[in-house]
Amino acid sequence: MKKTFGNIPLSVLDLAVILEGNTPADSFRYSMRLAQKTEALGYLRYWFAEHHNMASIASAATSVLIGHIAGGTSTIRVGSGGIMLPNHSPLVIAEQFGTLASLYPGRIDLGLGRAPGSDQATARALQRDPTAAYRFPDTVQELQQYLSADNKNAAVRAIPGEGIDIPIWILGSSTDSAHLAANLGLPYAFASHFAPQQLHDAFRIYHQEFTPSAQLSAPYTMACVNVTAADTLKEAQLIATSMQKIFLGILTNDRKPLQPPDASFVLSQEIAQVMKQFLTYSFVGGPEEIRTGISKFVDDTQVDELMVVSHIYDLEARLRSYEILKELHLAAN
Questions:
Q1: Which of 110, 96, 88, 213 has the alpha carbon at shortest distance from 168?
Q2: What's 18's domain CATH number?
Q3: Which runs of consecutive H residues, i.e. helices, occur in the chain?
Q4: Could you give the CA distance from residue 132 to residue 128 in angstroms, rounded to a whole number?
Q5: How far out from the chain centre does Cα 15 lie?
Q6: How confident is the model at residue 276 (pLDDT cuts 50, 70, 90)?
Q7: Which of the four pLDDT bands, split at 50, 70 and 90, describes residue 118?
Q8: What residues form DSSP beta bridges with 190?
């Protein structure tokens, strides 16, 4: 069946963004508000991403936040988008997510990435083996083994974790991860919200090389995009200056908490061109602009699920953005 905006699930990516003038504790309260709102609206998943040493992001202890949000909701799936596995022992992740899945059965997802989620100095501070990223396929399979029921006679066991159904996803921002997800027969999520260049090639590789597994019988893809929706185009463009500032900080290595909207903010032509490459799949506008842009994206990619991240300073405006997107989604059914 042809995928359209109206017939695929919508999900949420949250970085627990820290706002200028606020604390991480505030961010966690805002995340709970957003999770409860999007659950009520009918979004399928609520994922956190692991990042470290970033003044604007409070989701470093990803599994802790997953438990917090799962405990404050009742139906939405909660998970990682993702856990950066080279930073961790596969056994520890199996135990952590086994614990989460025991507490919240049928609701926990485990998305895995190979990047450090940080700069190299921070990666070393995490006691990360510099060769760990190269062994990512092996550590994914090691983690799968700990979670499998047939590991019960092994010398090392993940308890809790062993034998619990915890869907594993492979995350990617390049074609490398597409080969791995296909070979292991796992669902594949692509970070097109900041790395759009190889999205289409990665999906093509994944579909061509996919091998069915015990977890998944057919390919399943998800793409993440930036969405800033408001009741009018003018309002959305103003709100989106916060997103532009946070990406400018990444480009210039001047990272700060998320800034309020700024009507006077203007990018230089050179920076605007570079940023456009990062934010190709960023949809900013009123309902009509969002509907048109998202519909075309789904038509072009034939993605099975759409995940949305919104770098919006004001909580009520952020909640409204997800509300508008869901209203458009329902209208497109």
A1: 110
A2: 3.20.20.30
A3: 24-41, 62-71, 90-103, 120-125, 136-147, 176-184, 199-209, 233-239, 241-252, 269-278, 287-301, 315-331
A4: 7
A5: 8
A6: confident
A7: low
A8: 172, 223
Domain count, the chain: 1
- Closest alpha carbon to 244 in 262, 270, 230: 262
| Residue range(s) defining the domain that contains residue 29 | 5-331
Complete DSSP assignment for 75-123: SSEEEEEEEEGGGS-HHHHHHHHHHHHHHSTT-EEEEEE-S-SS-HHHH
∠318-30-121 over CA atoms, to 5°? Answer: 100
Q: Tokens for 223, please give them.
A: 């793409």
Fill in the amino acid letter for 299.
Answer: D
d(CA 314, CA 117): 26
The DSSP bridge pattern shows strands 45-48 and 77-84 to be parallel
Q: Token pair of 234, please?
A: 């003018």
Distance, CA of 27 to chain centre = 17
Count of other CB atoms within 10 angstroms of residue 150: 9
Which pLDDT belongs to residue 84? 94
What is the pTM for the complete model shown? 0.95
